[in-house]
Automatic annotation (TrEMBL):
Source taxon at top rank: Bacteria
The protein, known as: Molybdopterin synthase catalytic subunit
InterPro entries: MoaE_sf, Mopterin_biosynth_MoaE
Catalytic activity: 2 [molybdopterin-synthase sulfur-carrier protein]-C-terminal-Gly-aminoethanethioate + cyclic pyranopterin phosphate + H2O = molybdopterin + 2 [molybdopterin-synthase sulfur-carrier protein]-C-terminal Gly-Gly + 2 H(+)
Family membership noted in the UniProt record: Belongs to the MoaE family.
Taxonomic classification: Bacteria, Pseudomonadati, Bacteroidota, Chitinophagia, Chitinophagales
Record's subunit section: Heterotetramer of 2 MoaD subunits and 2 MoaE subunits. Also stable as homodimer. The enzyme changes between these two forms during catalysis.
Length: 136
């Protein structure tokens, strides 16, 4: 299991980590900065985390998924700091013997991360900024 908070996400590293000879499916969800938020044009985002607690919760989420599904590998990686429109900010992924399991587990990882992990984002608009729970 690979769990990290990073300055920049390397999508090639994520895919290569998840590869496994017993996996018929590798599933990656990549969350990116979109150009709209709160009905306004977004210019960039800034992420902050309570790192110790965030990593601990990410570990728990990953361990729970490994208990629930027959996964070969799993990763949860989230960025911190400033990100521009289009940049990846979170990647969750799994490798599994079959696609149904990989889709179900991957969806669970991102949904649970958004509910439980203490990460906040500040949205910057053309005229102001606003702090928002990154994972409401």
């Amino acid at each position: 299991m690979l769990i990290k908070l990073v300055d920049d996400i390397d999508l090639n590293e994520a895919y290569h980590y998840l590869r496994h000879p017993g996996a018929g499916a590798v599933n990656l969800f990549i969350g990116t900065v979109r150009d709209q938020g709160q009905g306004k044009a977004v210019t960039r985002l800034s992420f902050e985390a309570y790192e110790e607690m965030a990593l601990r919760e990410m570990q728990k989420i990953g361990a729970g998924a490994l208990e629930k599904w027959p996964l070969k590998k799993l990763l949860i990686v989230h960025t911190k700091g400033e990100k521009q429109v289009g940049e990846p900010v979170v990647v969750v992924g799994v490798s599994a013997p079959h696609r149904d399991v990989s889709f179900e587990a991957c969806r669970h990882l991102i949904d649970t991360l958004k509910q439980r992990v203490p990460i906040w984002k500040k949205e910057f608009y053309t005229d102001q900024s606003s702090w928002i729970n990154a994972h409401p």
